[in-house]
Design goal:
mainly beta; Immunoglobulin-like; 2 domains; six-stranded mixed β-sheet; four-stranded antiparallel β-sheet; 3 helices; 20 strands; 10% helix
Length: 268
């Protein structure tokens, strides 16, 4: 694999250029805010519900080779100390001969909010930028302004989305994960060896470097008994030096039966 301008960025530019001709984002996707009440920890539960036109889809936090990564702006929010997003397990699509990862027609995205001052109202206000795609992709900017109802009952759609998250490594029977790195002229080659039972059928491994200045190219995965071996190239967005922290690397294994979330790897 050789270094090139990220395919995702190229596709975004092409899709943005066709957006006005191919579709109106106000018609293609709608954002609704949901309330889920208090958690056992005292934080507040909410969710973004994205409803897309028939046949259209949007992207996971790591959109794959051809997709627009979502971004969030929470700067208008009030009484917020921390926000945690829980991503349901995505599916893999083929788009223009390239692989993308996301959700079709509807996404309920749970949000857990820790108030800065417990007991006082919490307001979520800001904007989410996403891509919605069918034969083409249209960038969409969706604004929200919502005061969370702390006394709301649990929302079944939020609970269902939380239940659809990838399994934690331990629950999925992961015994160990190791990473071997080697230098390249333009980046780092990473080979991960994950000791785990099969998640079913063809397993796709998504690798996130954990550093926003780094990105991983397409991953090649193969299985040797219990050992799942995945290799990728880690490249820099600004062509600067690459500093890779193994403890920050995140692996998501997407199998036909279930998905697995693995955090960090030891040298190996």
């Amino acid at each position: 694999m050789s270094k090139a301008f990220p395919v995702t960025a190229i596709m975004c530019l092409l899709f943005a250029a066709t957006a006005s001709a191919e579709g109106d984002p106000d018609i293609l996707v709608r954002l609704d805010m949901l309330d889920g009440g208090r958690t056992a920890r005292g934080s507040l539960r909410a969710a973004m519900k994205l409803t897309m036109a028939k046949g259209w889809k949007t992207y996971w936090r790591q959109p794959g080779e051809a997709g627009i990564p979502p971004s969030f702006d929470w700067r208008g929010s009030r009484n917020v100390a921390d926000i945690t997003i829980s991503w349901p397990t995505p599916v893999v699509f083929e788009l223009a001969g390239l692989q993308s990862i996301g959700y079709k027609e509807q996404l309920v995205l749970p949000i857990e909010v820790t108030p800065a001052r417990p007991g006082l109202p919490v307001r979520l206000r800001g904007q989410i930028d996403i891509g919605v795609c069918d034969e083409v992709c249209v960038p969409a900017s969706l604004s929200f302004d919502h005061e969370i109802d702390a006394d709301a009952p649990p929302d079944p759609s939020i609970e269902a989305a939380l239940a659809r998250q990838p399994r934690p490594a331990r629950a999925a029977g992961v015994r160990a994960a190791s990473c071997r790195v080697s230098p390249l002229d333009d980046g780092i080659r990473l080979e991960a060896r994950i000791d785990m039972p099969s998640a079913g059928g063809r397993e796709i491994v998504v690798i996130e470097p954990g550093n926003p200045m780094l990105w991983a190219s397409g991953t090649e995965a193969r299985r040797k008994g219990r050992m799942l071996v995945a290799a990728t190239e880690i490249l820099s967005n600004d062509e600067g030096p690459i500093s890779l922290d193994r403890s920050e690397i995140r692996f998501t294994v997407l199998g036909e039966r279930y998905a697995v979330d693995i955090r960090g790897c030891r040298p190996g």
